[in-house]
Write a structure and sequence with these properties.
The protein is of the alpha+beta class. It contains 7 helices and 10 strands. InterPro entries: NUDIX_hydrolase-like_dom_sf, NUDIX_hydrolase_dom, WH-like_DNA-bd_sf, WH_DNA-bd_sf, WHD_NrtR.
Length: 248
């Protein structure tokens, strides 16, 4: 079925089950192959990309809506979610639904609540919905052309992630359970958009006593196998509560 028919068919039902003029857009971050990635979908017959999003059922709150939307896209549960901004500019949907009647649900003015989500890349199974012909991970350095104001939503999410790096469990949520110190440093460098001194970074991290060094190493490289670590979650949460207080 074509994109127009699908949109029109869903519109009548939407008026009955969703809260009017309110939507949710999610910026889903994952870390893989030393690259920070974001989950994006491509709309059928439009050739524009979008962040995962949707509407809020009359029977749920905002976070429940965000979790439902993300589960339908990723199959992942217990995702770390952080609300970060409401996007309310006029005419946010201009250009996408111009050829549809004004009564179309999707053509109404929507205030969108932005959430960023942090997931373990390996625990995600990507799923396309009826409106999309692609659902993919893209490096934050190689983003496609977004529809509407979704690029602005992404930019604000990344800015918020950078600002909250010392106060939210970002490393714990994005890295696998076991990781190397170079992987942790690379994650921080990507989020901060700057190169960090290796020795200083290691000393700072070890000084916080939030990492457990394991009796294991990462095999398979050409050089000496790096040691593996995992977070001591209780100490990590306490340190984040007080703030890491580092000027990276």
């Amino acid at each position: 079925m074509g994109f127009n028919k699908i949109i029109e068919g869903k519109s009548a039902e939407a008026w009955d089950i969703y809260i009017p003029n309110l939507s949710v857009d999610c910026v889903v971050f994952g870390f893989h192959d030393t690259t920070l990635k974001v989950l994006v979908t491509r709309l059928k017959e439009v050739d524009l990309w979008a962040l995962p999003g949707g509407y809020v059922l009359k029977t749920e709150n905002l976070k429940e809506a965000a979790n439902r939307i993300l589960f339908s896209r990723t199959g992942a549960e217990n995702i770390y979610l952080q609300e970060f901004k409401v996007f309310s500019d006029l005419n946010r949907t201009d250009g996408i639904f111009d050829n549809f009647p004004d009564t179309l649900w999707n053509k109404q003015r929507f205030l969108s609540v932005g959430f960023y989500a942090l997931v373990d890349f390996h625990h995600v199974n990507l799923v396309m919905d009826d409106f999309s012909d692609a659902c993919e991970w893209k490096s934050i350095d190689e983003l496609p052309d977004f529809m509407m104001d979704h690029r602005s939503i992404f930019d604000k999410a990344l800015e918020t992630l950078r600002r909250q790096l010392n106060h939210k469990p970002i490393g714990y949520s994005l890295l696998p359970e076991k990781f190397t110190m170079p992987e942790l440093q690379k994650l921080y460098e990507i989020i901060l958009a700057k190169k960090l001194n290796r020795g200083n970074f290691y000393r700072k991290m070890l000084r916080y006593d939030i990492l457990q060094k394991l009796d294991e190493s990462r095999k398979g490289g050409a050089h000496k196998a790096p040691d593996l670590y995992k977070f001591d979650i209780e100490k990590y949460q306490l340190a984040l509560k007080n703030g890491l207080n580092e000027g990276w």
